[in-house]
Specification:
Largest sheet: 4 strands, mixed
Structural class: mainly beta
Radius of gyration: 46 Å
Distance between the termini: 144 Å
Number of helices: 5
CATH topology of the largest domain: Immunoglobulin-like
Number of strands: 33
Helix content: under 10%
CATH architecture of the largest domain: Sandwich
Strand content: 35-45%
Number of domains: 4
Length: 560
């Protein structure tokens, strides 16, 4: 004979069956637990009835989630079933656990035992089959109870008796994280029916239709907060119905309690905002200096809403406003020095009411332009978005679609580097000058700047020209013309913050100083400007808007 593979589960069943047979050789076995294979206390079990009814096998040695076998039928872990009318069993990892149902005292004077029911029931029996509902509400507001209107429909089995009385029905309304309504109930309204609605009569075979039920409920919160995504209603009999009756639910929820019908429906967050335009206005300061940090800044931001599509949005951590610098007027591309949130906690929680625009009148933050010049940050931009940490999951939209929702303001008239205002100079001819011989002149120069001007350090920063002119504005230049009289050391002179920039002694090349003031050499002029290739670069302006500052002094002719 060849090798045979032994199934350990089959071996276990044979072993258990063998043990049970040995027990029965002595006669009859009486169950000593709450039940034995589904039989009640003290009930005699014969060998034939035992194997006809149940076998329970524990095979936890072979896996973590073992099935059970009941009356030849495989039951999976956590499966539930009834034995008779009063015993409910569950398969628990290969072990069959059974409990006897505890009966609650019927709320009537003469309860009767009914076939198929474990517990005595009141004489009046109502068999509810289906339950459905519709809920509507306008302008739902998260976190607040708002008016809702509800229609309900309950159908009954044809053999349900006519019922007339008071406080017959109860309908509760609540939010839930579970599609069956199990677990904690959010914002529950225990009874939404008024006295008249709760006392509505039913006629055999006709449904119970109640329309226009009015109550208040946190309709706007459901679907907007974590783990509360269902609106549920539970239909049952009233707390103190007169006359007393038994409500039997066909296919009701749960294996034991069959006295209510619960219907849950998924609910998306009803809060929605649709923005159509974004406008940013710089309130202060008037000047932001490049290469500086911690500049206190205030901006007003207004977001226009579509009044027909936008609902009230209320909660915590609702909004996010980012600020950054960009080289593009639409904020596209690389974002420079982005700040992810400039709203205060109060602004972040600001409620948007129906029919209103969203406005942050004063957003206070600090601007950092360290290591940056104005040409690198021509636009200050603001992005309005839904805060990722919003306490409600509202809908944020823009029409037309703008993703991201950004508005930028120009920094052209705001960002400044150095603004030169005035040039002053004086000249000296060497005391040992010999008439008829070319000689240099020495010039002391000072250039004033606006007080907010930044400090500038580096090389090749400045350029100073000296020339003769026929007019006092320096427009009619004449020889000699010296395009730059600065040495490399002079050109690297540091401009302190707020100025002035000074050159104590500038020396021109030698020229015929005896012609100064004579002929077309009426004026001696000094011209100041930014160097051609400064390192590092900086933003340079003059108060006049010209590229240079020119100052001319009249000269007397030595021959006259």
């Amino acid at each position: 004979m060849g090798d045979r593979t032994v199934n350990p589960h089959r071996l276990l069943v044979v072993t258990v069956a063998t043990c049970v047979i040995l027990l029965f050789l002595s006669g009859t076995v009486s169950s000593q637990g709450s039940n034995f294979f589904g039989y009640s206390y003290g009930e005699d079990i014969s060998l034939s009835s035992l194997f006809a009814d149940s076998v329970s096998i524990s095979t936890s040695d072979f896996s973590n989630r073992e099935p059970c076998v009941f009356r030849g039928e495989l039951k999976l872990h956590n499966d539930k079933w009834h034995i008779g009318t009063c015993t409910m069993c569950i398969c628990n990892n290969g072990t069959m656990d059974c409990d006897i149902i505890s009966c609650v005292t019927a709320k009537c004077s003469n309860p009767v035992k009914i076939d198929g029911e474990c517990c005595p029931l009141c004489h009046y029996r109502v068999f509810a089959e289906t339950f459905d509902w519709e809920l509507t509400g306008e302008n739902p507001i998260p976190g607040q109870e708002t008016p809702v209107s509800i229609d309900i429909d309950v159908t009954f089995r044809d053999d349900t008796r006519d019922l007339e009385g008071d406080d017959l029905w109860s309908v509760s309304l609540f939010g839930s994280s579970d599609p069956l309504g199990d677990g904690p109930r959010f914002g529950e309204v225990g009874q939404i029916l008024n006295d008249v609605e709760g006392s509505t009569d039913i006629t055999n075979g006709d449904p119970l239709d109640l329309d226009g039920i009015e109550t208040e409920f946190e309709f706007g919160t459901i679907g907007c907060i974590d783990d509360v995504n269902y609106i549920c209603m539970e239909f049952t009999k009233g707390d103190a119905p007169d006359p007393e009756f038994t409500l039997i639910v066909e296919g009701g929820r749960g294996d034991v309690s069959r006295d209510s019908l619960v219907v849950c429906k998924p609910q998306a967050c009803q809060s929605r905002v649709v923005f159509t335009d974004l406008e940013a206005t710089l309130i202060s300061p008037d000047i932001i200096v490049e290469n500086t940090d911690n500049t206190d800044t205030t901006v007003k931001l207004k977001a226009t809403t579509d009044k027909l599509l936008t609902t009230t949005v209320a909660g915590e951590d609702l909004w996010q406003v980012k600020t950054f610098f960009s080289t593009n007027t639409n904020g596209r591309g690389i974002r420079v020095n982005e700040q992810p949130q400039i709203l205060t906690a109060v602004q972040d929680d600001q409620t948007l009411n129906t029919g209103e625009n969203l406005a942050f009148n004063e957003m206070d933050f600090q601007v950092d332009l360290s290591g940056l010049i104005c040409d690198e940050v021509p636009f200050m931009c603001f992005e309005l978005a839904k805060n990722p940490a919003a306490s409600i999951d509202y809908t944020f939209e823009t029409q037309p679609v703008q993703d991201p929702f950004v508005e930028c303001v120009s920094m052209e008239d705001v960002c400044k580097g150095v603004v030169f205002t005035e040039l002053e100079w004086s000249r000296e001819i060497p005391e040992d000058h010999v008439p008829g011989i070319d000689s240099p002149i020495f010039i002391e120069t000072s250039v004033d700047v606006e007080p907010y001007s930044r400090e500038v350090t580096g090389v090749d920063l400045w350029q100073v020209s000296v020339f003769a002119s026929r007019d006092m504005l320096g427009n009619e230049r004449r020889d000699p013309i010296y395009s730059d009289v600065l040495t490399p050391i002079d050109a690297a002179t540091t401009l302190p913050q707020g100025g002035p920039l000074t050159f104590p002694t500038l020396e021109t090349p030698p020229f015929d100083v005896d012609k100064m003031g004579c002929g077309e050499f009426r004026y001696l002029c000094v011209e100041f400007q930014k160097g051609d290739n400064p390192i590092p670069d900086f933003t340079y302006e003059t108060i006049s808007g010209e590229d240079t500052i020119v100052k001319c002094h009249p000269e007397d002719c030595a021959g006259m």
